[in-house]
Write a structure and sequence with these properties.
The complex is a heterodimer. Chain A has one domain (about 1-135): BH3618-like (Roll). In chain A, about 35% of the residues are buried. Chain A has one helix spanning about 75-80; strands at about 1-5, 10, 20, 35-40, 45-50, 55-60, 90-95, 105, 115, 120-125, 135. In chain A, the strands form 2 sheets. In chain A, strands 3, 4, 5, 6, 7, 8, 9, 10 and 11 form a 9-stranded antiparallel beta sheet that branches. A two-stranded antiparallel ribbon of chain A has the order 1-2. Chain A has 1 helix and 11 strands; from the N terminus they run E-E-E-E-E-E-H-E-E-E-E-E. Chain A is globular. Chain B has one helix spanning about 45-60; strands spanning about 10-15, 20-25, 30-35. Chain B is elongated. The N and C termini of chain B lie far apart (about 50 Å). Classes of the chains: A mainly beta, B alpha+beta. Chains A and B meet through strand 6 and strand 7 of A and helix 1 of B.
Chain lengths: ~140, ~80
């Protein structure tokens, strides 16, 4: 099937690539279907494109490529809703916010996006971690 | 919307399995305890609002042409 994206143009995707977000995403409760699109094979960046709204694209970042000590405990309720376990681990991404220059982009450490690549389910969870910021600079000292 | 007045130690029961207790009041600060099933998510209002606001802003289509500069940036 074909998918329209304002940012990424026309995308040809398989129906099974569609990820179900049963709760939507905070701020977008009605957006329950997304497609995860890698930026490049080895890039830590990727996109989360709404399957229904061409204008809705999130830029995602692989947290572990930047923050080696990033960690949290996925609570049982979220794990069972997503169908993930230690045998079937989730993928974890951060939503990036680019307001000006790319080097100034921030990421939301407090509310990671969790994807189950096997059953194609996703959810943005909110952690109970006081030291994780909603606007954490991805490139400290302005980047390299 | 229902508005209730409670004294310290008094409770509000919501449905069959949510109990909100006013644990204490100290000046402007009211300490509340909530007993609810695990699947009910409880957030401080301002944290949830901040996540919503951040998502709304992150979703605005920005000029990402500069991202090409990061193309060579690979996972470790």
């Amino acid at each position: 099937m074909k998918l329209q994206s304002t940012r990424l143009g026309e995308l040809e995707i398989d129906e099974e690539q569609i990820i179900d977000f049963p709760r939507g995403i905070p701020g977008f409760p009605d957006e329950k279907a997304f497609v995860h699109i890698p930026y490049g094979e080895e890039s830590p960046f990727s996109f989360l494109q709404s399957a229904n709204e061409p204008n809705l694209t999130f830029l995602l970042v692989d947290p572990f490529a930047f923050f080696t000590d990033y960690e949290f405990e996925l609570d049982d309720e979220a794990a069972s809703e997503l169908g993930v376990s230690s045998e079937n681990p989730p993928q974890v991404f951060l939503i990036a916010n680019v307001k000006g220059e790319i080097v100034d982009m921030t990421v939301n450490l407090l509310a990671p996006v969790i994807l189950n690549p096997v059953n194609h389910r996703g959810r943005q969870i909110i952690l109970e971690k006081k030291d994780y910021s909603i606007r954490h600079k991805l490139f400290s000292q302005g980047g390299e | 919307m229902l508005a209730l007045t409670r004294k310290v130690g008094e409770r509000i029961v919501i449905g069959d399995d949510i109990v909100v207790t006013v644990a204490g009041v100290k000046g402007d600060n009211i300490r509340i305890t909530v007993d609810a099933p695990k699947e009910i998510k409880i957030y401080r209002g301002e944290i949830y609002d901040a996540i919503v606001a951040e998502n709304l802003q992150a979703a605005v289509s920005n000029d990402l042409s500069g991202l090409n500069l990061l193309k060579g940036l690979n996972k470790k």
